[in-house]
Specification:
The protein is an alpha+beta fold and about 120 residues long. The chain has 1 helix and 8 strands. It has one helix at about 5-30; strands at about 30-35, 45-50, 55-60, 65-70, 75-80, 90-95, 95-100, 105-115. About 15% of the residues are buried.
């Protein structure tokens, strides 16, 4: 095989690895809403933010990365039923609020707590 043949094979392998990596990274966030900045909420979301006294205050804006979703208080349900939809997952990861498996007919109540401060060791 010639040097050109080896270079072509190497180029195809590198391209394949890059495409597989892009596909896997995109699949990780499939069917998820990722919110990483303050946005106004729509009528399908009710947002409650914990204030400095520990009380929750309803707001029409999603908080920024200095807050985390309280996974035990937050819930979603379909507009046709009042039962909680446990297939929907809500969490905060790397400063981004992530809601997965959300459908068009879901309504969510999201409760946010201030992000815990970490003390360096």
């Amino acid at each position: 095989m010639t040097a050109l043949g080896y270079k072509l094979i190497l180029l195809v392998l590198i391209g394949s690895i890059i495409l597989i990596n892009i596909f896997l990274n995109n699949a990780k966030y499939q069917n998820k809403i990722i919110i990483n900045e303050e946005k106004e909420t729509e009528e399908t979301l009710a947002v409650y933010v914990q204030d400095s006294s520990g009380n929750y205050v309803e707001t029409d804006r999603l908080p920024g990365s200095d807050y985390v979703i309280n996974e035990s208080k937050s819930y979603c349900y379909t507009k046709k039923s009042s039962e909680h939809d446990t297939s929907i997952k809500m969490y905060t990861e790397n400063g981004k609020h992530i809601i997965s498996n959300l459908g068009k007919n879901n309504k969510c109540h999201l409760w946010f707590d201030p992000k815990p401060m970490t003390i360096p060791e």
